[in-house]
TrEMBL record:
MF terms (GO), sorted A to Z: DNA binding; DNA-binding transcription factor activity
Name of the protein in question: Glycerol operon regulatory protein
Domain of life: Bacteria
Pfam families reported in the protein's UniProt record: HTH_IclR, IclR_C
Keywords of this entry: DNA-binding, Glycerol metabolism, Transcription, Transcription regulation
Domain IclR-ED: 104-292
Positions of region (Disordered): 1-42
Native species: Nakamurella panacisegetis
UniProt biased composition (Basic and acidic residues): 11-30
Length: 302
């Protein structure tokens, strides 16, 4: 027999204050009412998240049911549901007045799934590439006005670049960032560049080699669009060079960047043509695995 929703919530570690209207936890401890020091806002967030969990578990619930499960007044539950509805995370069924999860939850889940898919689908390509070229291979996306490193495969070289997974970097100073910026919408690109501007109107310099002039950066982005790759030498860090190319999704839009990075003394000019070809080919393979079919017929998934 299925567990009642309230029992499930308690069993899965839901906050104790949701189980009792008396303001006390089941063991008799007084529960913080949320007054002072912003704890009321934290409690509201906690309750809203619990509503999402309850809707996920039960499918549909009415305001009265939700209020009872949370141990709050019906008006409080209504306000929380209204806020979730505003953000598309919950929706009210017009015929019965009950609530269910909104499509906004699907969008959030889809964003997470797409990131996981990129990592999963890139590994059969990035691991052999790292072994073949001997340097670190990265998978990077745009996150707000910065780049976010989703995955990294280290090459066999003795001297390795440190782990970038989960790390954020300025977009304008990296090869990955330029690939992503070159294919961003005008509005998105303006926001990204605006975040990198200094009071003098120039882009923030991370090293003496960082491009800080907006016109020069725009010219570099035009080359990225024309040639299909970006190179950054000693711009993020002195001694670090990277080559990047775009990963495209099923609709042809650029969803991520694939790069090879390593010490500048190893990724020097004579190795660059091979590195560029390897990165472009690898990015095309990952794109194919993500469902993209190039206009000429494209590289099929391996």
């Amino acid at each position: 027999m299925p567990e009642p929703a309230l029992s499930r919530a308690a069993h899965h570690g839901e906050p104790a204050e949701f189980a009792d209207r008396s303001g006390r936890a089941p063991d008799g401890r007084a529960v913080d009412s949320g007054s002072g020091n912003g704890s009321g806002s934290v409690q509201s967030v906690d309750r809203a998240l619990t509503i999402l969990k309850l809707l996920a578990a039960d499918g549909e619930l009415g305001v009265t049911e939700i209020a009872g499960l949370l141990g709050v007044h019906k008006s409080t539950a209504s306000r929380l549901l209204a806020t979730l509805e505003t953000h598309g995370l919950a929706e009210q069924l017009p015929d019965r007045g009950r609530y269910r999860l909104g499509v906004g939850v699907l969008r959030l889940a889809g964003a997470t799934r797409s990131r996981l898919d990129i990592v999963r689908e890139s590994r059969p390509v990035t691991a052999p590439l790292a072994a073949d070229i001997g340097e670190t291979v990265n998978i990077v996306i745009l996150s707000g006005t910065e780049t976010l490193y989703l995955d990294q495969v280290a090459g066999p070289s003795a001297l390795q670049i440190h782990n970038w997974i989960g790390h954020r970097n300025p977009v304008h100073a990296t090869a990955n960032g330029r690939v992503l910026l070159a294919h961003a919408s005008a509005t998105e690109a303006e926001a990204i560049l605006g975040a990198a501007l200094t009071p003098s109107g120039r882009l923030r310099a991370l090293t003496p080699n960082t491009i800080t002039d907006r016109a020069a950066l725009q010219a570099a982005l035009a080359l990225v669009r024309r040639d299909g790759y970006a190179v950054a030498v000693d711009e993020l860090e002195i001694g670090l060079t990277a080559v990047a190319a775009p990963i495209r999704g099923v609709d042809g839009s650029v969803i991520a960047s694939l790069s090879v990075s390593g010490p500048s003394f190893r990724l020097e000019a004579t190795r660059m043509p091979r590195a560029i070809k390897a990165v472009r080919d690898a990015a095309a393979l990952v794109s194919a695995r993500m469902g993209y079919l190039a206009p000429s017929g494209g590289i099929r998934p391996v």
